[in-house]
C-alpha cells in the first residue's frame, strides 16, 4: 500500500468523482481505479523522490466525456506540474481511460462543492489544456518572467520594522540578535551565521526578518528577503528557461540572504540548490538569516547536511507571548484601531480577559479585537466583559494542547533517570540506558505526531523496527507493572509542563 492515499483498499474518496464519472458509461469506481493506475505508473516512471515532492497532493475531481479534471492546493504546484509533467499525465490518462484532455486547477471551496461537474472546455482543446497564466501575487509575481529577478526579493510590509516590534522576555534574545545582524556595517562580515529563528505561527518571526531586510539596506548592506516558496519558484523557473546560472550568481552576490518559512522548501533539486547557495554565501563571509516553525533538527523534509549546517549557527526560539507582552500588543493595536474608528476603546478588565484566554500569539489577539470592534460598531453595544465573553467565545482556548517536541521528551527522561541525552542516543545497551531509551521512544510515539522512522532518526538514526519494539514493550509493561505505569504518567506530566 502506498502512502498519501495513492493506493487503497477501495475506500479512498476523490471529491466530485461520483457526481462526474465518465459519461462514456463508467462509474465512480472505474474513475478511481483509472486514477490509481495513473498514479502508480507515474510514480514508477519519475521515481520515489520526485513523486513524493510534487505529486501526492494531486486529487481527481472528475471525468466527463474524455475530459479529466485534476486539482492541486497551490498555484505554485499547478505551474510546476503544467510546465514539466502535464503531457505525460495526458498520455497516461489516454492509455488508462481513453481520456484525451486534462485540466489542472487550484482547489477552492467553491470548486470542491459536492456534485459539481467539470467545467466545460472548448472543442479546440484536443490534447492538453494550455497552462493558465497565474495572476501576479507576492509568491508568483509577473516580474519573474526572468527568473533571475527573484534576487529582487519578496515584497516587504512597511509596517514590519524594529520600531514597531514589541519586546518581552519571550522574544528579547531573538530581537537583539536580529538587530545586531541588521546594523552590522557592510564589509564587516557575518555576526551569527546562520542566524536561525524558530517559533509557532504569529509570534513575530516574519516581523523580525522583514525588519532585518528593511534596516540592513540603511547600513550599506545588500539584503534580499525571500519566502521559501518564492525561492522555489525562482529556481524552477530558472531551470525551465535555462537561466539557472544567472539565478545562482545574483543570489550569491548579495551581502545578506533572508529566507522565511523554510519548512515549506520542497523537492530534492531545490533543496540541493538551497544547500549550495547556503554554503557559497557562508563560505564567502556573507550573512544568512532563516526562520521556520521548528528547530533545524525537526525539519525532517530537509537533507541531513542542510539541517547540520543550519544548526551550526545561532538558533533562537521565540516563545509564546506572556500576559504582559500580550497587554502591550493589545494596547498598541487598540490605539491604531481608535485612529480609524474614533471613540473605540476597550476596558481594562476586558483586555485582561483577552490576554489570559484568547490564544498565545498576535494573530489570535487581532482576531479577538476585530470581534469586539465589529460587535461595538454593528450593534452599538458598549464593550463590557459580558459582551466580550460572548463575542470571542469560540476563540477562547482554556485547554489548548501543547505541541510536544522530541527534544522535550529526551530532556525530561534523561533528567528523571539521571542519564545524559548522549547516553540515550548512543548505542550502549546497559540496563540503566535501555530502559530510559525505550520509555522515551514510547513517549515520542504517544505524545507527538511523528512517524516511527522519524522517531528512529531522532534517536541516533535507529531503524523504525527498533522504535516499534520499544513502543510495544513499554505498552505491554504499563498494563502489568503498576510502578512503571506511574513513572510513565509522571513523565507525561513533566513533558507537558515543559
From TrEMBL:
- What role does it play? Plays an essential role in the initiation and regulation of chromosomal replication. ATP-DnaA binds to the origin of replication (oriC) to initiate formation of the DNA replication initiation complex once per cell cycle. Binds the DnaA box (a 9 base pair repeat at the origin) and separates the double-stranded (ds)DNA. Forms a right-handed helical filament on oriC DNA; dsDNA binds to the exterior of the filament while single-stranded (ss)DNA is stabiized in the filament's interior.
- The keyword Disulfide bond is assigned to this record: no
HAMAP family referenced in this protein's UniProt entry, alphabetically: DnaA_bact
Query: Major place of localization?
Result: cytoplasm
Compartment(s) of residence: Cytoplasm
Chain spans, region Domain IV, binds dsDNA? 377-498
**Where is the Chromosomal replication initiator DnaA C-terminal domain positioned along the sequence?**
405-474
Keyword Cytoplasm, does the record have it?
A: yes
A GO molecular function for this record?
DNA replication origin binding
| Region named Domain I, interacts with DnaA modulators | 1-135
Question: Quick one: where's region Disordered?
Answer: 1-31
One biological process term in Gene Ontology: regulation of DNA replication
Q: What is known of its domains?
A: Domain I is involved in oligomerization and binding regulators, domain II is flexibile and of varying length in different bacteria, domain III forms the AAA+ region, while domain IV binds dsDNA.
Q: Which gene encodes it?
A: dnaA
For ATP, which residues are the binding ones? 202, 204-206
Relate the assembly described in the record: Oligomerizes as a right-handed, spiral filament on DNA at oriC.
Q: What is this protein called?
A: Chromosomal replication initiator protein DnaA
For this protein, the record's NCBIfam families field holds: DnaA (TIGR00362)
